[in-house]
Design brief:
By secondary structure, the chain is an alpha/beta fold. It contains 20 helices and 31 strands. The termini are far apart. The structure holds beta-D-glucopyranose.
């Protein structure tokens, strides 16, 4: 009896002390965020704005093995961690774990360049949803993607992660991806904000860029994605813009991102980005990733010494807590570690086929007719397909469907002798080599096999057609080069294409070249040889099946390039300055910044200004190999009946156009809407993409009316003198076409009086004078 009495008394005491504890400790979710912050010690606040580093506190196992980073939890206040995983082509975590027989593979989806080539917002959203579901079911909270930088130069090693050379399509694709991923109740971190358009010296390169180019080309895609996608977070970039690290720049992270664009989430650094944690806090870079003890002590010291106001920390902590409140871990979501990988494989297979681009198809060589049964497959990458780029953008997928497997799955036979030749060659070439050159670089490419003409002719005798695959890979930490074997074909690759076409054409057999690349390569010197060229990009784990879907005609290609293929590298407007020049080591300026990879102080001046990609080639009339927006189909389309709601602009304009499938097979077409604006005070590119729409699958003879809305923002250009977006008065031409050159319908409207569409609050003018490219009037 006595015992019972004592234990009841104790329970009451514990119960009451529990209440007391709870009333002392407010809890996130139950109490107001501000109240939770008020209860935090300085150390606790700082722990929230600095990530846990690469090792978990107290040496405990990571919450999700292989995740890129984690934020601290504060159980006392009910604050859970956020687990952040790369991105952007799928979730990047460890596929296997110690003492665990389960596997944790993720789906490798197509890379960004391919997704943009679909011009299909709903499809990209669907890919995002599948990816977001893997974030959720593997117990993570935020995907580190999409990648939103501009294809300023084809040699940027990370172009595969980004969408395009054009800010409008970049923004639309980014928004679609964010909306897809976040529909699963997890977050995104759109990256790398901003102007991270090269990998060389990425931690210390200073980008000198005019305010107009910065706003129109390098920020505009982010603005669209932020306003239309509302991402939970933004990742600042490693580089400096006009002398200031992006992560330390309050104009960029607070005035522009938050005040002007209305971003509500938090900003995190790229891994080890920037130098000064206090400046980062002030700028509004709320979370420092992956986080270090030096950053923690520096911030604590700054607050203690009165160099950093604690209310700045409170502001940053609040932004992070608001996101934590939305996160699955905070909500106690019970993840399964079992996403539906089979269903997601279907999504990637479909998306991949929609973004492949048919560059050439002489005499309707594709789709392959029923008489084609035996295919001779040349090129290393026919056997070892490249599904995505390297570095943090690489995904640990369970399998990859090679081209050979894809062809077999589609019922073709491939040549066994050729297969064994290639497999011995690949094995031999890799003997004694390290498997990879570190996670950033992947494995060194194997030189093409030099086949003598007799073997090739023998193959031509016993096969019905030939496929040659040309592969390229790259990733973060380094850029590509304008060398043979990289931007240009190697001598062996040139020879292979020449010899195979010669032998197969002699037997009246078709030759198809497949480009298994993440970015642009040179095509002008060899493209006349093969009958067909399919730009397959790096299309995710189902690459082989998706290629087979196109070449059998199961899927009619509808992809179009969202980045120009120039005739030669020298034609690229930034060819002379990319990737910047290294500066003599200055002991102060050269203080290494954080981040992976060594970086030397360097500067890259964007002399081409706004004339990036097609804005340059079209305005300055430079011939290209394949222009922006280009891509063929197995059918033809007629564009007709372009209608404008008015021929005078007053706030907004509706444009409609009819697209009819005039060929013999079902297909989809992209209608691209370009505007040519009057150049009154400001110079203007000869045309700019301002809208696009893709038809549904149209049966032969079927038509669809596509609708576009043009608002005043789409008419405007940035005038640095007035710090405003201005739509100049005059005549605007509306051009709708199947590519930036293939304009099918035209009309005009008048803007009677200039409109100031938006006045910006801060100016980002560089100190240096930039001699920018301008068209002559
Ligand atoms: C990359 C980011 C990536 C991060 C975390 C950095 O090196 O630049 O894109 O999200 O690492 O892995």
């Amino acid at each position: 009896m006595k015992k019972i009495l004592i234990s009841s008394v104790l329970s009451i005491v514990f119960f009451l002390s529990g209440i007391a504890q709870n009333s002392i400790n407010p809890k996130l979710g139950k109490d107001r965020v501000k109240k939770v912050i008020a209860a935090m010690t300085l150390e606790e606040k700082v722990s929230l704005v600095v990530g846990t580093g690469s090792i978990m506190p107290g040496g405990s196992p990571p919450l999700v093995a292989g995740a890129a980073g984690t934020s601290y939890s504060l159980p006392r206040l009910g604050i859970t961690s956020l687990v952040l995983t790369d991105g952007p082509a799928g979730v990047r975590i460890s596929p296997t774990r110690e003492n665990d027989l389960n596997s944790y593979y993720c789906t490798a989806f197509p890379v960004g360049t391919l997704l943009a080539s679909t011009w299909d917002i709903d499809l990209v959203q669907k890919v995002g949803k599948a990816m977001g579901n893997e974030v959720l079911e593997y117990g993570a909270d935020i995907l580190l993607g999409p990648g939103m930088n501009t294809h300023r130069n084809p040699l940027c090693g990370r172009n595969f992660e980004y969408y395009s050379e054009d800010p409008y399509i970049t923004g639309k694709m980014g928004a679609a991806m964010i909306n897809g991923v976040e529909s699963e109740g997890v977050g995104t971190s759109i990256k790398h904000f901003a102007a991270n358009n090269a990998e060389t010296n990425r931690n210390s390169v200073n980008i000198i860029v005019s305010e107009r180019a910065l706003r129109e080309i390098y920020l505009e895609g982010f603005r669209i994605a932020i306003q239309e996608g509302k991402p939970w977070t933004v990742m600042s970039s490693y580089n400096l813009i006009n002398g200031i690290y992006t992560s330390e720049n309050p104009d960029l992270l607070t005035s522009i991102l938050r005040k002007d664009w209305g971003f509500k989430g938090f900003v995190m650094t790229d891994w080890g980005g920037g130098k000064n944690p206090v400046a980062q806090m002030i700028a509004g870079n709320d979370l420092l990733m992956p986080g270090s003890s030096t950053q923690t002590s520096t911030i604590i010291k700054a607050v203690t010494e009165g160099k950093l106001e604690e209310k700045i920390l409170d502001r940053n902590v609040e932004k992070i807590l608001n996101v934590i409140l939305e996160s699955p871990r905070f909500k106690g979501f019970k993840f399964t570690n079992k996403p539906d990988l089979k269903a997601h494989a279907e999504v990637t297979r479909q998306a991949a086929a929609e973004g492949m681009v048919l560059l050439k198809n002489d005499s309707a060589s594709l789709p392959l007719g029923r008489s084609i049964k035996n295919i001779a497959t040349f090129g290393n990458t026919s056997y070892e397909i490249i599904t995505g780029g390297t570095g943090s953008g690489d995904v640990n997928e369970a399998y990859r469907v090679s081209l050979i497997e894809g062809l077999h799955n589609a019922g073709f036979k491939t040549n066994d002798d050729l297969s064994s030749l290639y497999s011995s060659w690949l094995k031999l070439s890799k003997t004694g080599r390290p498997r990879s050159r570190g996670f950033m670089m992947g494995s060194r490419p194997v030189e093409e096999l030099s086949l003598n003409q007799d073997i090739i002719s023998g193959m031509a005798n016993v096969s019905d057609a030939a496929i040659i695959t040309i592969g390229r890979n790259s990733g973060e930490g380094s850029d590509r080069t304008n060398a043979k074997g990289d931007f240009q074909l190697s001598d062996l690759e040139q020879q292979l294409i020449k010899n195979v076409t010669k032998a197969f054409k002699a037997g009246r057999k078709k030759v198809i070249v497949i480009l298994n690349v993440g970015g642009v390569i040179e095509t002008a010197s060899w493209r006349d040889l093969p009958d067909a060229i399919l730009l397959a990009w790096q299309a995710g784990q189902e690459t082989g099946n998706s290629i087979a879907d196109i070449i059998t005609g199961k899927v009619n290609p509808s992809g179009k390039i969202a980045t120009t293929f120039p005739m030669t590298y020298d034609d690229v407007p930034s060819a002379k300055t990319f990737p910047g020049k290294e500066l003599p080591a200055d002991p102060v300026a050269a203080q290494p910044a954080g981040g992976f990879g060594r970086s030397k102080p360097a500067v890259d001046t964007y002399n081409e200004g706004i004339y990036v990609g097609y804005r340059y080639y079209e305005t300055f009339k430079i011939k290209t190999a394949y222009e922006f927006g280009y891509g063929l189909s197995y059918t033809n389309f007629i564009f007709s009946d372009l209608k404008l709601s008015s021929d005078k602009f007053s706030g907004s304009l509706t444009v409609t156009v009819d697209v009819k499938n005039s060929g013999n097979v079902a297909g989809k077409e992209v209608a691209e809407l370009y505007l040519s604006a009057p150049a009154v005070k400001l110079d203007k590119p000869s045309l700019e993409l301002k809208g696009f729409a893709k038809t549904k699958l149209l049966k032969p003879g079927e038509s669809q009316t596509l609708t576009f809305i043009i608002d005043s923002r789409r008419l405007s250009s940035f005038d640095p003198a007035r710090s405003s977006w201005i739509a100049e008065a005059g005549k605007y031409q509306v051009k709708i076409g199947a590519s930036s050159k293939d304009i099918r319908q035209r009309s005009t409207f008048i803007l009677a009086k200039e409109i100031t569409v938006k006045k910006e609050t801060v100016s980002l003018v560089p100190k240096e004078k930039i001699y920018e490219l301008k068209p002559t009037k």
